[in-house]
Amino acid sequence: MSIAAKYYPNEPEQPVVKVTQIPGPESKKAIESLGKVFDSRPVYFVADYEKSNGNYIADVDGNVYLDLYAQIASIALGYNNPALIEAAKSPEMIRAIVERPALGNFPGKDLEGILKNLLKVAPKGQDHIWSGLSGADANELAFKAAFMWYQGQKRGYNTAWTAEENESTMKNQAPGSPDLAVISFKRAFHGRLFASASVTASKPVHKIDLPSFKWPKAEFPAYKYPLEANAEYNKAEDARCLEIVENIIKTWQVPVAALIIEPVQSEGGDNHASAEFFQGLRDVTLKHGVVFIVDEVQTGVGATGSFWAHEHFNITPPPDLVTFSKKFQSAGYWFHNPEFIPAAPYRQFNTWCGDPARMILAGAIAKEIVDNDLVSKAKEVGDYLYGKLEELQAKYPRHLQNLRGKGRATFIAWDLESAEKRNEFLYRLKQNGVNCGGCAEVSVRLRPTLTFEKKHVDIFVSVVAKVLADFV
């Protein structure tokens, strides 16, 4: 029995399209009403989650879409997953929701077990965890850990703060509040809070009007595709970008304490880089004493054919910090060096220190993925999907440019010739019962669940072929 059939015996066999004007009339009414109390302008359609099932999301107009967007890449196992529903009913979950403990001061007796369940799927080389509330929060917490570690290396891990440090930090001045930087990459996305927005560089809308830290942006490799035909060019591109990174670290006006990078730049266009590039970054950060942070918020939890995408690169030694959220339904960062635990308590701290309810759900998600070998299944399905798209690319090269993600399971993307064409393409997919997302200006990105199977691929590809056949 397939995993989709096991979980979802009543999953629809095909998309259902009752209203082709999307959002439909019921959605429009709901959006207008919602808009009186909430900013509903970004809404594509209003979903009916009671009727959504498996790999299909329903809307209030009766449309049922094959979903390759999965709540902006944050649903691991599909809609109304029975195993997760059972986890949600557990006494452990009820306590976590109703009591919502302040974990730093009053952890429950079950917290250690909850965390150990998560550590079973920690990235290779990582054996500690710190929890947060969202992907952006996870990255900001990682920056705090990096800055405190960096200063601790200069001061001495257990060395007390000076009177000058104590006094100056209360005025937001050095040396207590030092001028330090985090290097990130052009086209990156790491969140919409203040520090995370400062390292984001994919779209102005994410950060315009926000005061920001004056932190540097390096070049992320811009490869030519197909990779096999452009190996020399792409190798030179790696070298060029690594040189830029090292030059920034050596010459920036304030010390660079940390570097943050996504294994695949997701919001910025699904931009890939090689294992050699990532190992080069690790070598540079070690050489200059810079904390190496890998942002696995969107890439993590199996979608690339490895539980954590950076594991494809076999980075040695492992990254210092690895952030997570989205498909894990929880958030935080992994680490392995105990010195990333601040020497004094209450430094990395807040009221809740994460959310045990979301951690319980993350543990249940991890168990289902491991027990059902869903990472390997995603890789098999992704290879099948990529092959089908290569066939369409040969037929429609203008509308399937720079196809990428080969060998990365279902983490696949391509470009259209313009933003207008990309947006029109995504809208037509919806009109034909497929919910799909874009990124950057001209890219289409695929983010199905880990229960997406070859039968779903065939439906998706047939819809894509139908749309492209009359796409002008």
UniProtKB/TrEMBL annotation:
Q: Which GO terms describe its molecular function?
A: 4-aminobutyrate:2-oxoglutarate transaminase activity; pyridoxal phosphate binding
Database matches in CDD domains: OAT_like
Cofactor annotation? pyridoxal 5'-phosphate
EC numbers, comma separated: 2.6.1.19
Keyword Membrane in the entry? The reply is no
UniProtKB keywords: Aminotransferase, Pyridoxal phosphate, Transferase
Quickly give the catalysed reaction: 4-aminobutanoate + 2-oxoglutarate = succinate semialdehyde + L-glutamate
Which class of enzymes does this protein belong to?
transferase
Report the GO terms under cellular component. mitochondrion
Source organism superkingdom: Eukaryota
Any one GO BP annotation for this protein: gamma-aminobutyric acid catabolic process
Outline the subunit composition.
Answer: Homodimer and homotetramer.
Which family is this sequence assigned to? Answer: Belongs to the class-III pyridoxal-phosphate-dependent aminotransferase family.
Query: What is the official name of this protein in its record?
Result: 4-aminobutyrate aminotransferase
Species per Swiss-Prot/TrEMBL record: Cyberlindnera jadinii (strain ATCC 18201 / CBS 1600 / BCRC 20928 / JCM 3617 / NBRC 0987 / NRRL Y-1542)
- Provide the organism lineage as a comma list: Eukaryota, Fungi, Dikarya, Ascomycota, Saccharomycotina
Gene that encodes the chain: UGA1
